[in-house]
Amino acid sequence: AIQSVTARRVLDSRGNPTVEADVLLADGSLGRAAVPSGASTGAREAVELRDGEPGRWHGKGVDRAVAHVNGEIAAAVVGRDADDQAGLDAALVALDGTSDKSRLGANALLGVSLAAAKAAAAAHRQPLYRYLGGADARLLPLPMMNIVNGGAHADNPLDFQEFMIAPVGAETFAEAVRMGSEIFHTLRRDLLSAGHSTGVGDEGGFAPALRTAEEALDFVMAAVERAGYRPGADIGLIMDPASSEFFRDGTYVYEGEGVRRTPTEQVDYLAKLIDAYPIVSVEDPMAEDDLDGWRELTARVGDRCQLTGDDVFCTNEELLREGIRTGVGNSVLVKVNQIGTLTEALATVATAHRAGWTVVMSHRSGETEDTTIADLAVATGCGQIKTGSLSRSDRTAKYNQLIRIEEELGDSARDGHGSPGRPPRR
Ligand code: PGA
Ligand code: ZN
C-alpha cells in the first residue's frame, strides 16, 4: 500500500520550475517522477497549474501544485493499493473534480500517477515497461530525432517548429542512435561551413537562421547523404510544423517566409513537400481549429504519409474518437502531461490501436532527466518515439534508457521497430 506521497519543485530543461513527486510504499519501494512542460501547447490540454505570481519565477511557480500533492492528494491516496493504477487515477481525477484538471493541476496529478506506477513496478521487481506492458513488451520504438528547431522552440525565422530524421533502415535501436548521431554531427559541420549558427533550440536540434522549410529540408537531405545514408531507404524525414502556432483568422501566416496560405493552399504546399522529399510523417500539419483542412489533407495524402495529431487531440481519448470518426489524420501523438494521468494516456493509445491508427510516444519541449516515456513506448508497443535531438541530456536520457532496455531484452527483443503509417502487430 502507499505509505507516503511527497512533492518538490525541481528545474526543467528550460530552467523553469516543475513538479517532482515521490510515492513510497509500505515495503520500502520508491517511485519518482518529474513532470514535463510544453511551449506550443494545445488549447484543450489538461491545465498545468502555475502560481502566476509576477515577482516569482516570472509567474511560472508551481508551489500551489506542489502543495496540492503534499496536502489533499497525499491525504486521498495514502493507504491505496499501488497495483490498482486505474483505481488510483480515477480517484485523482475525481478529487480534482474539474473536466480540465485545473483545480489541483494536471502537473500535480501526473507526478503522482507516474510515481505510483514506478513504485508498483519496483515492488514487483520489474522494469516499468514490463510491469505495464507484460511479457509482450518487446518492441523498441523507431526514434524520430529532432535535428532542426524553429517556431516556438527557437529564436530563428523558421516557421515550422521541428525537422526530424527517423532511421527506418536501422536494425536495432542502438544502430538507430548511431545513425542519428552521425547525421547530427554532419549537419553541424555543413551548417558551420555555410556560415550558419550551430546553437540549438529547446529540443536540442540546431536553430540556424533559415527562412523556409525547403531550405531546412535541403540541409537535412545533404547531411543524410554526406553521412553515408540513403534518404528514404535508410532515413525517413519528419516534420512538426506545429501549425496551430501560426494559424491566424483562418490563414496560415508564414512570417519567416513572408507569405500567407489559405487552408487549401496549406494542403497543396504540404502535399508538394511530401512528394518532393522522403517525408514519412507530419505532425500537426494543420491547425487544431482547422478540422476541414485536416480532413482535406488526410484525404489527399493520408494513404502515403503518417499524419499525426498533437494539438488537435491533446492525448484526449474523446477528442481522438471524434477525429477517428471524422477522418482527421491517421495517427496520434501521446504526451502524458496533456491529459494528466497514466490510465487516461494508456486508454488513448488503446483507442488508437483499435482503430488501426499509429501512436507516437512523445516528450515535451520542457523536459527533465525523467525517462518514463522511454518505458511507456516499449510498454505500449507503439513502435515510435519522439524525444528530441542527439544532444542535451534531457533528450539523450530517453535514448540511453531505450539502449538499456534493448540490452536487457537481448534476443527476446522483437526484430525491427515500428514504422510510420503502420500499426504494430499485436
Ligand atoms: P511542446 O512542443 O512540448 O512545446 O508543446 C512539442 C510539440 O509540439 O510536439
Ligand atoms: Zn507537436
TrEMBL record:
Cofactor: Mg(2+)
EC number(s) from the headed UniProt entry: 4.2.1.11
Catalytic activity: (2R)-2-phosphoglycerate = phosphoenolpyruvate + H2O
Segments of this protein annotated with the region Disordered: 35-57
Active site: 203 (proton donor), 335 (proton acceptor)
Cofactor binding note of this UniProt entry: Binds a second Mg(2+) ion via substrate during catalysis.
Residues that bind Mg(2+): 240, 283, 310
Lineage top rank: taxon: Bacteria
Subcellular location: Cytoplasm; Secreted; Cell surface
One GO CC term, this protein: extracellular region
GO molecular function: magnesium ion binding; phosphopyruvate hydratase activity
Main location: cytoplasm
A Gene Ontology biological process term: glycolytic process
UniProt biased composition (Basic and acidic residues): 45-57
Keywords on record: Cytoplasm, Glycolysis, Lyase, Magnesium, Metal-binding, Molybdenum, Secreted
Pathway where this protein functions: Carbohydrate degradation; glycolysis; pyruvate from D-glyceraldehyde 3-phosphate: step 4/5
Sites where the protein binds (2R)-2-phosphoglycerate: 161, 335, 364-365, 386
Family membership: Belongs to the enolase family.
Role this protein plays: Catalyzes the reversible conversion of 2-phosphoglycerate (2-PG) into phosphoenolpyruvate (PEP). It is essential for the degradation of carbohydrates via glycolysis.
Name of the molecule in the record: Enolase
Gene: eno
Residues represented out of the complete protein: 10 to 435 of 574
